[in-house]
Amino acid sequence: MVRITRKSMIMRNFIQKYSLVLLFLGTMQIAFGQPAALQDSLAKGNQLYAAAKYAAAVRTYEAIAAKGYESFELYYNLGNALYKSNNITYAILNYERALKLSPNNEDAHFNLEMTKKQVVDNIDLLPEPGFLRWWHELINSRPADSWGTHSLVSFFLFLLLIALFLFATTIRNKQLTFWFAVVTLCYSLLTFSFGSSQRSKLVNHNSGVITERSVRMKGSPSETGTELFILHEGLSVQITDKLGDWIEIRLADGNKGWVKEGALIRI
Amino acid sequence: MILRKIKLILFALLFTLPGWAADKISFTMEAPQVVEMGEQFRLAFSVNAKGTNLKLPDLADFDVLMGPSTSQSTSFQIINGVSSQSVSFSYLYVLRAKKEGRFNISPGAITVDGTEYKSNAQSIEVVKGSAKPSSGGVDTPTSTPGSVPKSDLFVRLNLDKRSLYKGEHLTATIKIYSKVNLNGFEDISIPNFEGFWAQDIQLPQQISLQRETYNGEIYNVGTLKKSLLFPQQTGTISIGAVKIDCIVQQRVKKSQSIFDDFFDSFANVKATIMSDPVSVNVLPLPTPPAGFSGAVGKFDIHSSITSKSVRENDAITIKLDVTGNGNIKLINPPKISFPADFEVYDPKTNSNFSASDQGLNGNITFEYLFLPRFAGSYTIPAVNFVYFDTDSKKYVSKSTEEYQIKVGKGDGTHAQTVNAVAKEDLKQIGTDIRYLKTTNAPLQQKGYTFFGSFAFYLLYLAGILTLLAIYLLNQKRIRENANVARMKNKKASKVALKRLKEASSHLHAGDDEKFYESVTRAFWGYLGDKLTIPASELSREKATDELTKHEVSAAIIERFVQILDTCEYARFAPGGGTAKMHELFGEATDVMSVMEKEIK
Fold first, then answer.
1. In terms of CB atoms within 10 Å, which end of chain A has fewer, N or C?
2. Which residues from B are below 8 Å from A144, CB to CB?
3. CA-based torsion, B39, B40, B45, B46: positive or negative
4. In the predicted model, is pLDDT for residue B410 greater than 90?
């Protein structure tokens, strides 16, 4: 009896493993098979934009996004089309989304700055210690996948060095490969942590753009809360907490407060 | 008789006057527009030449009480030596309306010099008679002298529209309605049309009263003012009241004497009348498209240019001419996108219009003076003139033509003063966002990152597993190699014994050279297999080292070396005798058996 259950457990494990492989293959197919038509409509959107039909271009791009697909180019071009059709708030939202996928793209940064000039609220950035800023810039310099590749490649290098270490015959070679292996392992772990930090930003959607014309930021998550600030549309904020349909946000200058969930859209 | 003679003389005179014959015959019919039931009124025909055979229009709806009574008048004047004469014949009928309604009187006709001329047609509105009996145009004294009843004298501010778009026009008319004998106005205060841009419509200097009906009654109506109003703001705009101080002539009845009935005495009474305030609802225009110039109405635009081919720094003027009906005065100059390095002056505006009941008609011109500063070919794009059409309630866009301008090199009068090219800072003429990304990068599922995906972790696992596999394979190989060594070790003594047997057969055969060789090979082969030393590496030193490592006692090693030495010595110096060979064979088997025991 015990043996049978063990056997079935093994079977189940096998199916689980197999289904994961299937799932993996499936996602690969979705990621690379289906969007050929969408890729065409992206090109069509670009043509509409070039013909100065910005509203139509916006609709085309948004249709692609509505199907659950994204890319840096899609968000960037959508941001451009929205800017041209004078929809500043949503242009900011899409540039921010584009920058999440490609954090160090210069053009997207430029356009975002251009667009932000038309936002009412002017908020001074909270000064960050030099080291921390450098650290965040370093993490932000690459998207999650790029850090992931770094981590993987250095991990393979680590494994190679371990192999060399095992087969090394002289003490000197053993020492050399051992220390190199330690260094590559550290690099792999570091880039892995960078990657997971970038991925968490992408997956958790913990920032947003105010989309209501003007919003009163309250001191507590209720209508009767003290009004702290009046925010205007287009402002980018960090989301730090959620309680019911109230969201705690943190402004770039460090101020915190609560707004209704409907007042913003998560990036 | 005398009259006739004069007439004849005058006729004779007339024919000598050159201007006379060319005068047109005019034949007109005149009647009041509005009459009351039972009221007598006059229908008059007048002609400026002697006519015959007057044909009356159909007057079946009216009673002809009297007529025709003819009359004629002649006037003769000399102005600055030029004499002119006019003659007028009139035929008068007195009619009375039989029933209420609106009646059209068709044209009458008259024959002058054999040609028939037709008069104008006329419509007469017959209204119900007022309660008070009409008594031949003589006013009955008012019940309260010194005041004028409101129903007899009032002023109205009429607007032809109560709801309109901002910028559209409405006509405001101020009319005075009177049944009394108006003698004049003392003070007219007209509201300032706040919130509007007002343009007065020209009216005759003299205010003439005309008969009109209002609420079924006949009044003498005078138009005091007519204005076109263009609202400048949206929402409800109220217009204040018109206030007029009138002087009314009233008959004052004095009942002391019976003569008073014959000699009426009149008194001037001052009456102040006010209109009701009115309000207008002004609708905002729909969201205007780009290039909207503020024009509302119906317009046409065309442009002209003074020259299309000039030299550097020569002035060119583009003239835009907007013609039409609407708020002409309020049109902003359309923007022309001149090439960036042109020197452009502010446009000069010139407007010319006239106000009428139909609105403001006319044109406005904008003159743009500019100087191309550098030679080259330039395009001045078409001007898009956008206005709001009040009929279709839509924005209409009209374009002018595009101009290609060729600017030739200047004659140098401007450039000669400087030898070097005047350096200019890079001029930023506009800001724009950066252009699209047109690279066809693949789309991904939302929220999908390779990082953290199953495949990602699988690659780590694959790496670790590969290393593990390589390591295990290597271990296995090492183990297998070790087995080979053990086999050789096992086989070693067998092989050695076989070689020693071979040696003993050589010993018995007396072949000493082969004997010594076999012994040496037996030892080397034994050590190679036993200690897993490749044959190439075998040497005396290596062998003693290895044997020491394998804890073989020094005495045995000494004896082994002794045997090797003896063999080598014997191989190079044969003839040692059989006894020596037997002794060596015994020694070799002995050493080998001890070695077999001692090697670990």
1. N
2. 449-452
3. negative
4. no
**Segment among B139-143, B243-247, B495-499 with least mean pLDDT:** B139-143
Homologous superfamily of domain range A207-266: SH3 Domains (2.30.30.40)
Q: Which domain holds residue B75?
A: 2-127
Q: Which of B287, B384, B433 to mutate to test the interface with A (most CBs of A within 10 A)?
A: B433
Chain B residues touching A107 at Cβ < 8 A:
434, 437
Tell me which chain A residues have a C-beta less than 8 angstroms from the C-beta of B454: 20, 23-24
> At residue B14, does pLDDT exceed 70?
no
Is A162 in CB contact (< 8 Å) with chain B?
Answer: yes
- Looking at the 3D structure of chain B, how many domains does it have? 4
**Angle between helix A72-84 and helix A106-116 axes, rounded to 10 deg:** 30
Higher pLDDT, B443 or B132: B443
Q: Which two tokens stand for residue A177?
A: 């490969």
Residues near B308 by Cβ (< 8 Å), separated by ≥ 6? B403, B404, B405, B406
Short-list B316, B320, B327, B338, CA closest to B399: B320
Q: Which of residues 212-251 of A touch B (CB under 8 A)?
A: none
Give the model's pLDDT for residue B80: 80
Measured in angstroms, the CA of B231 and the nearest CA of chain A are apart by 30
- This prediction's pTM: 0.43
Return residues 470-509 of B near A (CB < 8 Å).
470-471, 474
Mutant choice from B446, B451, B465, B467 vs A, greatest count of A C-beta within 10 A: B451
Q: Are residues B11 and B122 in the same domain?
A: yes
The domains of chain A are located at 36-116, 130-204, 207-266
* pLDDT, tens digit, 9 for 90 and up, residues A35-44: 678 888 888 9
- The answer to whether the beta carbons of residues B49 and B63 sit under 8 Å apart is no
Q: CA-to-CA distance for B462 and B156, rounded, in angstroms?
A: 98
Instruction: Residue B566: count other Cβ atoms within 10 Å of its Cβ.
Output: 20
**Per-residue pLDDT reduced to its tens digit, A202-227:** 888 888 999 888 888 888 888 888 88
Contact check, Cβ <8 Å, A195/B451: yes
Hey, which of A4-18, B406-420, B538-552 has the most confident mean pLDDT? B538-552
Q: Do B443 and A69 touch (CB under 8 A)?
A: yes
ipTM computed for the complex: 0.75
**What is the distance in angstroms between the Cα of B389 and the nearest Cα belonging to chain A?**
25
